[in-house]
Amino acid sequence: MGHVLKKLYRYILSSFIGTFIFTFFIAVFILLMQFLWTYLDDLVGKGLGFDVLGKLIFYTSITFVPMAMPLAILLSSLMCFGNLGEYYELVAMKASGISVWKIMRPLFIFAIVMSMTAFVFSNNVLPVATLKSKTLLRDVRKQKMSFDIPEGMFYKGIDGYTIRAGKKGADGTTLYDVLIYDHTEYKGNIKVTSADSATMALAPSQKEIVFTLYHGSNYNEVIDDKEYRTKRPFEKMAFDKQYVSFDISDFDLNQSDGDVFKGHQSMLNISQLLVAIDSLENSDVERHISYKNSFRNRFQHLSSKDVINKNTKNKKVDADTITVFKWPFLENFSAKEQQSIVNMATTAVKNQIDNIELNINDFKRQDTNIRKHQQVLHEKFSLSIACLLFFLIGAPLGAIIRKGGLGLPIVISVVFFVIYYIITITCQRIAIAGDMPIFLGVWTSSLIILPIGIFLTMKATTDSALLDGESWKKTFRKIFRKNNN
Q1: Given a cut of 80, is residue 303 above it in pLDDT?
Q2: Residue 410: CB atoms within 10 Å
Q3: What pLDDT does 423 receive?
Q4: Is the pLDDT of residue 324 over 70?
Q5: What pLDDT, on a 0 to 100 scale, did the predictor assign at position 427?
Q6: Domain ranges of the chain
Q7: Is the Cβ–Cβ distance between 146 and 251 less than 8 Å?
Q8: How many other C-beta atoms are found inside a 10 Å radius of the C-beta of residue 8?
């Protein structure tokens, strides 16, 4: 029996792992296409090389692994057990005395290994890949559009210059009817160069582009002349051939080192997150104490002797009653001085209220920042546990529905994953806002999926016809027959 089980486990694992790899890369590809579609406008027309695009796609694909892995495990386990059930292989195994749980055992161990792999990946690889992808994407989005002079239009891609070409040659480097406006002095169109034709070529440094102009003129308005407003004097110099160079170093991609994002919570591993959370919490406590002491010291000169101790709770006041506030101290001043004192006091109170509101908002931002760090910390564990939970749903569900292929399993997998994702995102947002503990915000979706997985596993081990269409038809027929009788 042991020899048979080994062969059986080898067969199940080989069919599952192949499906898992296929569905995993499909999931990553779909997520990557969604990313490229989102940032298409920032990538097109920048003249990016294959090395830059390759790095961006590679690092971005790595960031999608934690999301793609649970989906791949769900879909592959559903397809694997669906195929076993559809071709009656599962029935044959059960008939030979092998329980569903025994059949699931090697894949359950594989799911545990993948969960551990996902955890190690999320803790060690994901922060680095996220830092690289975010930094590179930021650099690409800041990059200028590639140097390309359109035909018959004014091109303003080079700082300080506007270039117009009436027509472009077939080779793409020859221009005809060329106008170059020099705006480097920010004085308008006082310097203009025109040429019948021009050729473009990169300088050896690759940092400049050289225009060789043929048969043209340089126009320069002399605005420093005293009679400029009345006579509009200008200088004109004709040429047969002239060289003009433009700095195009701004069109090169300047890759930064990522210092801007290094402190972000998504770029940290567990040990760094724990240190960051502890530091933020201590800083928050110190700021609260500091503000409390500052507030108390600012008003310590005020006496509490004149505070009204009389309880006025639930006291009824007529709507048309006007109470005149009397302060004997003010009677020592004139009416104008009293008004000035009241205005000063009102302004001081308003300023203090603004200061309090400013500090409250600052404390809220600090609390939100702490919650975001705690969320990322919990996600390191929840995403790996999700791999195991999705297996507990996919494997028994596939054994119950007995349908393989890419049809029904994909539909069921997508529905489950979308529900899981919506619950996760919704609860996390509520938790970040402070209306729910971070633990519940991150783990609610897993706590919902866990009993569903246990329930489906129990139904699969007892050969339940939970999702068998014929079984439901028979049940409804019996109900209708009873009603008719």
Answers
A1: no
A2: 15
A3: 92
A4: no
A5: 92
A6: 2-143+376-484, 154-251
A7: yes
A8: 17
pLDDT score at 145: 57
- What digits encode the pLDDT tens for the residues 433-461? 888 899 999 999 999 989 988 888 887 77
- Provide the token pair at 474: 């028979």
Residue 176 bridge partners (DSSP): 167, 197
CA end-to-end span of the chain = 52
Residue 177 structure tokens:
């009817």
pLDDT value of position 332: 72
**240, 334, 350 from 327: Cα distances, Å:** 92, 13, 20
Across residues 183-210, what is the average pLDDT?
Answer: 83
Angle between helices 335-401 and 270-298 (to 10 degrees): 160
Least confident of 64-78, 443-457, 466-480: 466-480
Contact 224, 206 (CB under 8 A): no
Residue 232 zone, left/alpha/beta (φ > 0; ψ -120 to 50; rest): left
Question: pTM above the 0.85 mark?
Answer: no
As a three-state string, the secondary structure of the chain is: CHHHHHHHHHHHHHHHHHHHHHHHHHHHHHHHHHHHHHCHHHHCCCCCCHHHHHHHHHHHHHHCHHHHHHHHHHHHHHHHHHHHHHCCHHHHHHHCCCCHHHHHHHHHHHHHHHHHHHHHHHHHHHHHHHHHHHHHHHHHHHCCCCCCCCECCEECCCCCEEEEEEEECCCCCEEEEEEEEECCCCCCCCEEEEEEEEEEEECCCCCEEEEEEEEEEEEEECCCCCCHHHHCCEEEEEEEEEEEEEECHHHCCCCCCCCCCCCCHHHCCHHHHHHHHHHHHHHHHHHHHHHHHHHHHHCCCCCCCCCCCCCCCCCCCCCCCCCCCCCHHHHHCCHHHHHHHHHHHHHHHHHHHHHHHHHHHHHHHHHHHHHHHHHHHHHHHHHHHHHHHHHHHHHHHHHHHCCCCCCHHHHHHHHHHHHHHHHHHHHHHHHHCCCCCHHHHHHHHHHHHHHHHHHHHHHHHCCCCCCCHHHHHHHHHHHHHHHHC
The listed range with the strongest mean pLDDT (139-143, 267-271, 307-311) is 267-271
Q: Which residues neighbour 436 within 8 Å (Cβ) at sequence distance 6 or greater?
A: 427, 430
| CA Rg value for the chain | 37
